[in-house]
UniProtKB/TrEMBL annotation:
It comes from the Bacteria. This is Transcriptional regulator. Residues 295-415 form the CdaR GGDEF-like domain. InterPro entries: CdaR-like_regulators (IPR051448), CdaR_GGDEF (IPR041522), PucR_C-HTH_dom (IPR025736), PucR_C-HTH_sf (IPR042070). Residues 470-528 form the PucR C-terminal helix-turn-helix domain. Pfam families: GGDEF_2, HTH_30. Signal peptide: none annotated.
Amino acid sequence: MNGLPLRQLLMSLGEPLVELQAAPAGLDVPVRHVAILDPEDPPTAAPGELVLAIGARGRAALPALRAAGRARAAAVAVKLDGPGQADALREAATEAGVALLSVRRETRWEHLDSLARTLLTGPDSAEPGEADTGDLFTLAQTVAVLTGGIVSIEDTSSRVLAYSRSSDSDEVDDLRRLSILGRQGPEPYLAKLREWGVFSHLRGSDGAIEIAAHPELGIRRRLAIAIRSGAQPLGTIWVQEGARPLTPTADRALVGAARVAAGQLVRRRRELSADARLTQTLLTGLLEGSTGPQSLATHLGLDLRRPATVLAYAPAATAERDAELSRDEVTGLISVHTAARHRGALLAPVDSRIYVLLPELPPGLPQATLRDWAQETVDAARTHLAIPLRAAIGPTVPALTDVPASRAQADRILDAMGRGGVVPDVAALHDVQAEVLVSEVLALLHDRPELRDPRLTALTTYDARHHTRLAESVLAYLDALGEVRTAADTLHIHPNTLRYRVRRAEQLTGLDLAQPQQRLLAMLQLRLAES
């Protein structure tokens, strides 16, 4: 048994069951068997095994990892009691040279065991007639033999996916030649096919249709059939007639070929989708610091030692509802603009934010360049989607290992930008240093009620009960550095009204706003209440 690459096993099992924590030997190591290691048994393993370390939580799984490494097993799956255990186990797995999978706490071991065994033995238990049909090029060549024609397989956008070989170039017409050379049907010919109703006939037919020869256009006779999965169109198979007529059973051969091609294209889409899900899982784990960088680097072939940075995007507070409705559009716009600037850019939507990892940056890339990239994206979102975005530029870190720190700083910046005030829509830390630090002091006050002055708490409570605006007036007075007229203009009230409110607040609470410490604490605590 050759085994299933670890990459395929992870794609199939997916994030709901397991997460990859380490893969020191890469993701192409073959998994041949599943073994259950009972906690009462001595730690043993065999080459190519996926070892399910049942009952050995956290550090108790270290002997199993070491034994699996000595035996050249493929991977060890464990359950973690807490996030702190992952680091020690990842280090042990890397030293042992064996992949480490963490299993969700709610996952039943027997369920994981059953799924893994099914995946490993699936090809051997296929139904009769469901043997491997090979790739699309093999299928195209088979159809050419069965029909006596020259075959191409295209997707729904008329892009050529595969084609058969032709020994005589004189048999190939202009439409076929230009399609193969350009990897897509040429527009003048496609326009003719639309004019003749070929594509509409294909959409409404389950069988093969015939397109007559048009020598004046350089088009020979051909058959075509739509490839579908249920009602979903996937593409078209075209058979061009060569020097000899097509076989009498060509149309029937095409019906079978379309069904085989549908299965292949559906599998291809599923594999691409599974690969994308695995990339997202590894990327999100790296950003959050729950998964080491080695797994993502191995999966995508990234250099761990090259600089990287994180850009973080979030809708402005006034646009959060609209941005939620247009989440796919926003993500698509960010991905297109970022990919135009950096070939290896990776996106990870997390809650209301969209993170962009820029790996393998050239050394010494100016932060002004990153700012220009982010500004271009923000401007495009405003122009094309009417959605105001904010963008935070995390620091460029020397290696992928430090990516969580870049993400954390980008989050600090976005948090501060989200609290309002006069801030740019694209910012690095030095642009909003004061806003970030004040934001974090306010977060500390929010989480630690014992640090607040009860007199200020009483003031906001009084406002809520009596529908007054004393706290708001005091904060405006303090923000204006005691300039009564400036503060009154901000609140659109008469200066005497402001003076009365400030005196009234001092009388009710016993505060003395002439004292610097009390002014400082009032500015912070009242700003917390306002936010």
